[in-house]
Amino acid sequence: MSVMSSGLASLHKILKDETRRKIILLLREKGSLSYTDLMDTLDIVSTGLLNYHLKVLGDLLSKREDGQYVLTEKGKLASRLLLEFPEENRKQLGLKPKWWRKFWFAQAIIGTVLLIISLVAYFHGYMGLNSLYQSVISIISGIGVAYMITHILRDVLSERARLKINRVMYILLGTFVIGFFLWIALMTVLRASGTLISSTFGRDGSAIFGIMSFIVCYIIGAFIGNWIGKRRNYHMP
C-alpha cells in the first residue's frame, strides 16, 4: 500500500503540470511525435523548457531511433489515469482542471459587466422590464454555454483546433461585449445631447442612424476582439 501511495505521489508531481499532461495525452492520441512536432503543437518557443518537461517525464516516454517520442507502458498507464480515473481520484492526484478557477473568475467579471450595462440601458429607457429579464436570462445561459465550450476547447480538442476556435471566440466576444458597450456608451452620449439627432436627421433618419451606429459599433467590437486575440496569440485566459 505504501509503495502504491509513493507511486501515486511521484506520478502526481510529474502530472500536476499542464504541459506535461498535454504531452502524455498528445502521444496517446498521435502514437508518436517528433521533438519539432511537440514544440509546434504545444506552442512552446523555448527548447530549454521542452527539454525540462521531457526530462521530468522520464520513464513515461522513450525516444525511438528515428527521433520520435512514444509512451512507455508506464506512460500509457499515466494517460489512462488522466482520461479514465474517477473524479475523486483525479482530485487526489491533483488533476482537477486548472481552468476552472480562472473560468469562474472571468465569468463573474463578464457577467457583472453585462448586468451593469443592461441595468444602465434599462434605467436610461433603452430597454423595458421584459427585455431586462431576457438580458439576465441570456447572461446566465451564456455562462452555461461558455462552460460547455471551454470544456470542449480545454479537454477535448487539439491545440491547433483550439487556436482556430479561440480566434472565432475572440471575434464574437469583441462583437457582443465590446460592440454592445460601445453602442450603449454612444447612445448615452447622444441621449444627453437632447434632440440633436432628431433635429439633424429627422424622425426616420434618427432611427436609421441608430441602426447604423449599432452595426458600426458591433463591427468595431469584432475588430477589437480579433486584435486582442492576435496580441495573445489567440490563447484564452
Describe this structure as you would to a colleague.
- The chain is mainly alpha-helical.
- The chain has 2 domains: 91 residues, Arc Repressor Mutant, subunit A; 133 residues, no CATH class.
- The protein has 10 helices and 2 strands.
- Helix 7 runs antiparallel to helix 8 and helix 9 packs antiparallel against helix 10.
- It is elongated.
Structure at a glance:
This protein has helices spanning 2-15, 18-30, 35-42, 47-57, 73-84, 87-92, 99-123, 129-155, 159-192, 196-231, and strands at residues 61-63, 69-71.
SS element count, helices: 10
Provide the number of structural domains.
2
Reading side by side through the largest sheet, how are the strands ordered? 1-2
Major sheet characteristics: 2 strands, antiparallel
Nearest-angstrom radius of gyration? Answer: 25 Å
Overview features:
237 residues, mainly alpha, Arc Repressor Mutant, subunit A, two-stranded antiparallel sheet, 10 helices, elongated
How would you summarize the topology of this molecule?
Elements: H1 2-15, H2 18-30, H3 35-42, H4 47-57, E1 61-63, E2 69-71, H5 73-84, H6 87-92, H7 99-123, H8 129-155, H9 159-192, H10 196-231
Antiparallel strand pairs: 1-2
